[in-house]
Amino acid sequence: MKNSKALQFVLAIGTMLLTLFLLQRGFIFLRDAAVSKIVIVVFAILWGVGGVAALYTVANWIVELLPTDWVPRIQPIVFVGPGLALLFWFLAIPVFRTLVLSFRGPNGQGFDGIDNYIFAFTDRIMLETFRNNLLWMVFGTLFCVGLGLIIAVLADRSKYEAIYKAIIFMPMAISFVGAGVIWKFVYTYKGEGSGISEIGLLNAIVLAFGGQSQPWLLIPPWNNFFLIAIMVWLQTGFAMVILSSAIKGIPAEMMEASRIDGANEFQIFFRIIIPSIQGTLITVTTTIVIFSLKLFDVVRVMTGGNNGTNVIANEFYLQRFTYGDAGQASAIAVILLLAVVPVMIYNLRQFRESRAF
Amino acid sequence: MNAKKPSLDRQKKLSNFFVNFVLIVICLIWIVPTLGVFITSFRNSQNIFKSGWWTILPHREYVKTEEIKLADNVDVDGPITVNGVTRTFEEWRAGVLMPDGTQLIWFGNKRTRQIDVQTLEWKWFETDLSLENYTNVLSGKEIRFKDGSGNEIVRQGNNLSTAFLNSIAVAVPATIIPILIAAFAAYGFAWMNFPGRKFLFTLVVALLVVPLQIALVPILQDYTKLGINGTFLGIWLAHAGFGLPLAIYLLFNYINQLPRDILESAFIDGASHFTIFTNLILPLSIPALASFAIFQFLWVWNDYLVGLIFLGDQNRVLTMALAAIVGEKGQDWHLLTAGAFISMILPLTVFFALQRFFVRGLLAGSVKG
């Protein structure tokens, strides 16, 4: 009996080594093989997903063969360990590594003191990014939440609620790059001259009303607002869906009672709906504020940060990958992190109060 | 009471009309930009350069019917009289509406001495629509198309078909792997006892809003050392790492509220944690798993930043390929519009097919930044 268990254990260890070996061979094949792309794609999916499943299964097999009093101690490592390892590698430890790098020079060498932070808070471009991110955070959030709330309240009274909501929600499935193309086409500008007709929707509308066509994305500071419009288009659906479900949670009797008491729709909106969904309103607002703080793709694709449209995340990218200064990039990343710390603390406090543990 | 009722009804109808009117206007604003791109993607490249996409609808436009040559002795710098109407050169060039309904417009510069006579004519639907833009942008070989002046342009295709396959190779494992890892971890947090359990879960909650920019510089160093920069493995791990806090948090909330007695009776029957997890908890958690799967899939498919940094050009995904067309050929709208639609097809399908699960995931996970 004992012998067979030892044999099984050896077999399990052997299987583990074989799995690791096969996965390593698979990696080499994926990296170097010159076969058709479809073969690569199918193989990659099977290798990646199957590999992870196999590793868990074999690791657990080994653990269950251990002496009985060891199992409860080792098994949590198999279950929780890989997840935590990835979390530490990709998020927790980099916080400290980036902090260290932010005091170093462009190549991650030497010690620059707080030079990178002095740069971050005094450089003209950096100050411009702070101003722009503030615009994004204030106006982007205001319009997303405001419009989302209006649509949620109005749609709640319509028979066609589902259709309206699906249309407003649809952009959430589109990438910022795709949305960038859609809106770049709306804003496109050809210029003046005989025989030229504008093919951009916005300029065509302006011309139809007797105005002058404009290169919208080249006029600071207004170009920022044309970019913000894209985020509003993408994110209003998010605010709407969450707020709408909160509104549906308000007891119908409460609204009915105030209507009978003679309250008009505006009073109901401000005295009943708004106070009832206050918590959700705060959550949605903070989510969108954080989103606009980290915003990158739209600016990168639409203007590259030129003409006064730069934002913090794009400057981070430029510093690290265009100018090759890891130190200044790290300082910018740390500033981004510090900006979300209040939200982090709020989340932790909420979590402690929820007593999920 | 009875006398009041009809007016109340009318008021209700009026407010209903108002509500629907406002919503329809907003929805039109929301949908028209996408519609424009959709229509444009089927138009002939030459037409796209010449006229707006709305001109495919029936409309009236000025069409040249004849031309007038001015005599050599006419002074083009002073007022010019044509068919009884006197205007300056600038006014003629901008176009002059004649009493008979035709429009006269100067062709070219002063030296041409030519004025075109245009009449307003009905144009029916534009029928020159095809899939050519799609085949062109998908192809990696040489492509040909016409620019606004009718010149033929030959150029290397953008090979979006390969980028599409790359997107699948990135998005499918980068969705399933973190779900698997997170489900194991969530089960561990919910049903197992180990030292530091509470502290570690608090860490997960804290990491929910950490901007991923904080990790990019050091992780890129690691990837270069490990030699996995630009590989599928590298980007799966990155997407898994960045998606895990939300995944663990969501799945924990779900698994933790499953009734405890299921588990206890399974234990009494001698089942191990692993069997309970695979045979009981995973099937029971399908709604939560599906919610997060859609969330993560859309996030990964639409991601640009993580791909840009960890994937090289050889494995570039759709968003990167599309952004490259914007950067290099920002005015090639026939390629851009078709490319944008190719990048949207799959997420839109997933989204509309599984919208219910997606909304549920959003509601549960709205603490994430």
- Kindly give the count of domains of chain A: 2
Main beta sheet of chain A, described? Answer: none
CATH architecture of the largest domain in chain A: Orthogonal Bundle
Mean pLDDT of chain B, to the nearest integer, reads: 85
Structural class of chain A: mainly alpha
Description:
Chain A is globular, with a radius of gyration of 28 Å. In chain A, α5 packs parallel to α9 and α6 runs antiparallel to α9. Chain A has 357 residues and is mainly alpha-helical. Chain A has two domains: 2-112, no CATH class; 117-354, Orthogonal Bundle (MetI-like fold), CATH 1.10.3720. Helix content of chain A is 75%, strand content 0%. Chain B has three domains: 5-40; 59-123; 160-364, MetI-like fold. In chain B, the strands form three sheets. A four-stranded antiparallel beta sheet of chain B has the order 1-6-5-4. In chain B, strands 2-3 form a two-stranded antiparallel sheet. In chain B, strands 7-8 form a two-stranded antiparallel ribbon. In chain B, a hairpin with a 5-residue loop joins β4 (96-97) and β5 (103-106). In chain B, α5 packs across α13 (318-328). The model of chain B has no long low-confidence stretch (mean pLDDT 85). Classes of the chains: A mainly alpha (357), B alpha+beta (369). The interface between A and B is large, with 119 and 126 residues.
